[in-house]
Specification:
Layout: E1 3-5, E2 30-33, H1 53-65, E3 70-73, H2 78-85, E4 92-94, E5 99-101, H3 114-126, E6 133-137, E7 140-144, H4 152-166, E8 169-173, E9 176-180, H5 185-193, E10 203-207, H6 213-221, E11 225-229, E12 239-241, H7 244-258
Parallel strand pairs: 1-8, 2-3, 2-10, 3-4, 10-11, 11-12
Antiparallel strand pairs: 4-5, 6-7, 7-9, 8-9
Length: 259
């Protein structure tokens, strides 16, 4: 049976729009970070994001402050994150939680053959407009229409139909739609929290998109804090930062305060 994820995950949590910024990061916490739209600005194409020296410095310093309890939780694959950051020892939950790495080694689940059929259908659709971009991942394939938003309705309808016929999960995001293997950022965070060095600590998760709502719900269930990045909206997060620059400033202030 296919699944479709559209609205903020609720699971008994009343949606609300948080108005307050979070307190500085507690050195005893565990930190989980979405990537696109949280640590780096969204780009016109997936490979157009900029990883600068400031971000590299933060991701090197934060694990020292937090005793190694920092992980990237992203829709990108682990291979994509490694290529962008060059930090193979950094814990990552990739492909919306379908693949996870706590240590330097990890096992990637087998790519469902249905994803190849979905990718071919996406590429056939994208042939109608050079501004449509197809992104293949280890456990997913995404159709980006950021540069051609008039195709949104048709792209979403195509993805819904393919999900139903190919038994895949359809994931809607910011100006894109993705078909992927089953995965859940919330379950990924819960699994990481059960393993050293995260176990027994309080989680904090930052994310910007609907794909992050399961993560906000999961950290709330563990007594932690979800931080929405971006404009106010109904969410399971309990605090908010305006954008990538504010996330980096908050992280830097936390580092300086703990020094």
């Amino acid at each position: 049976m296919s699944a479709s994820l559209h609205e903020p995950a609720r699971r008994g949590t009343a949606p609300r729009s948080p108005t307050s910024a979070p307190p500085l990061l507690d050195p005893g916490a565990s930190l989980f970070l979405d990537f696109d739209g949280t640590l780096v600005e969204l780009a016109e194409t997936p490979d157009g994001v900029v990883v600068d020296a400031e971000l590299n410095g933060l991701l090197a310093a934060l694990p020292v402050m937090l005793g190694g309890r920092v992980a990237i939780v992203t829709g990108r694959s682990i291979a994509q994150i490694d290529a962008l950051l060059g930090m193979p020892d950094l814990p990552v939950a990739g492909s919306h939680g379908a693949e996870q790495r706590v240590s330097a080694s990890h096992d990637t689940p087998q790519r469902p053959p249905a994803l190849d059929a979905a990718s071919a259908a996406f590429r056939g659709f994208a042939n109608r407009d050079p501004h449509l971009v197809v992104e293949d991942k280890s456990l997913g394939t995404a159709l980006h229409y950021r540069q051609s938003p008039g195709h949104e309705g048709a792209a979403r309808a195509l993805a819904e139909g393919l999900a139903a016929s190919l038994d895949l999960v359809v994931q809607h995001g910011k100006m894109m739609v993705e078909l992927r293997a089953p995965g859940d950022k919330g379950r990924a965070i819960a699994a990481l929290m059960a393993a050293p060095p995260f176990a027994g600590t309080v989680p904090v998760f930052l994310g910007d998109d609907l794909t992050d709502e399961d993560g906000f719900v999961a950290v709330a269930a563990l007594g932690g804090t979800g931080i929405l990045v971006g404009p106010p909206r109904d969410t399971a997060a309990t605090a908010r930062l305006d954008g990538v620059a504010d996330v980096r400033r908050w992280l830097m202030n936390s580092l300086e305060h703990s020094a």
